[in-house]
Amino acid sequence: MEKTASLAIKVPPARNLGTARTLIDIEHFDFSYGEKQAVFDINLTLDEKRVTAFIGPSGCGKTTLLRCLNRMNDLIDGTVINRGTIKINGIDINGPGVDAIELRKRIGMVFQKSNPFPKSIYENVIYGLRIQGESNKSRLDTTVEKSLRGAALWDEVKDRLHESGLGLSGGQMQRLCIARAIAVEPEIILMDEPCSALDPIATAKVEELIHELKKDYTIVIVTHSMQQAARCSDKTAFFYMGKLIEYDDTRTIFMSPANAQTEAYVSGRFG
Amino acid sequence: MPTPDANPFAPKPSRSRTVEKLIFGITRAATYFVLFCGLFVLGDIFIKGSRTVFQPEFPFINVPFLTEAPESLYVFEHEGKKMELGDRAFRVFREEQEAAARAAGLPVPQIKTESFVYSAGGIWPCIVGTVLLVAGSMSIALVLGVASAIYLNEYARDGKFVRFIRLSILNLAGVPSIVFGLFGFGMFVIFLDWNVSLLAGWFTLAFMVLPVVITASEESLKAVPKGFREGSLALGATKWQTIRKNVMPYALPGILTSSILGIARVAGETAPIMFTAAYVVRDKLPWEVEKISDFFFQGVMALPYHIYVVSSKIPQNEYTARVQYATAFVFLFIVAGIALTSILLRNRMRNLYKW
What we know:
The complex is a heterodimer. Chain A is an alpha/beta fold.
């Protein structure tokens, strides 16, 4: 069984993960869109400053769960949390003392379809700060440089910061969105299939970037590419039909999964 | 097996070819017919109107027609010549004649005249009134319409109630304009006691175009990609910050485009203003008021209503026909002018907020 799996996916050598603090703690979490339940009884703990990948076939609830982490699903009419809690740093994010807007300031998000705003590169990066009322020019300048460097985009765009963000290539746009997310210095970055529309070279750049970002941020990435999960995540959660099937170190998931469904999925036999 | 030099692609007559040609001919004829009708109407107004609006000598445009108020026209014979004079000019002329006769010790001459109301002078108060009506009602319609569209599209939860509101708004678009006129008369003129006034006309016209503005604004808001909203919200923006900074600027060009249609409708409607805002004749111009508040509570003359009056409320003859055509001609130009201004504004915004 281990052989078939290793044939399908190249798994990098085991990484020494060390011990990490739990940052996000999901307990018995059920979630519905109106009548239709999308996520069933999820129990999952995500570590600080690690990359966790959510994998699974389309419609398995991985994106839904990701969007519950920064309460983006609040914006969809008729969504209900039927049961369970999501705690970040021990605080129930759906509890009465938590404001979704304050929460989203601390949790950045990168979307499947890169969505730079039709503004200059500069304005794109500082959008989050402008929203918070920051207008100190030198502080904004510093943030732009720092964020674009952080997103490995500075050298490519430093001479055209005031040109439209829509003039960039697909991969650059996605990195611009990452720069925009890290400009507000969140703790967690959620990535919803960030490379699904990118070519292999742009994908490689984003993955490299994820490795860099891991030093400072906790990253949760939803991906359809198992190679990507194998390459850039520390832990992998496999979802199927709204349920968490298996969650373990990425190496274990790909080399010796405990569950037969996981094994079938990672070796490409279904999904 | 065909011979090598037989051309398999040679055209062959067939039934479907004939049908194709026939259908093509019909669609083409229909288009040309519509074009012809449009050109005929416009051409008729243009030719007959330009006889009054333009003149052969300098300054080539009939300036008094554009800058004076309507007057009665007096037509009479004087020393064997046929004279046509407006009201004020005629009085001056008559006094001169009488004074000259008295000075010469002759009996005061009786000038036999025929008079035609509104056939002399110009249409300046109507132009002013129409521009004021359009500007005011479109401002009201845009503010109310965009606000409702934002509420319906961005804030309200989609449910039975919102669907009911949308349906009602769509139905409003089909209500005949005379019904809006009656509504405005009952609501604003009588119930709110605004009398026949600019304000009553503004609101009546605004309510008439609101369905168009709301529907179009909603469409424009929907056309702004979801990613703009989600991207902004995910950075911790409130809904209003998101709408103001990242949705409205990109929806505005579309909203303006649809408002241009609204402008043409507001400027052209006679029925809604005939009970609410329009006077047959008014000597004072709208800004000749004692208090600023009076500005809103005065009736105005308006081009469409003036056309209606000179075409149906007074005896018809060659003199009134001139005014009718010339007024229609100027009216077309003014509507086109207002629409053009909004198109230019729209294009500017489009370039500013391109996506």
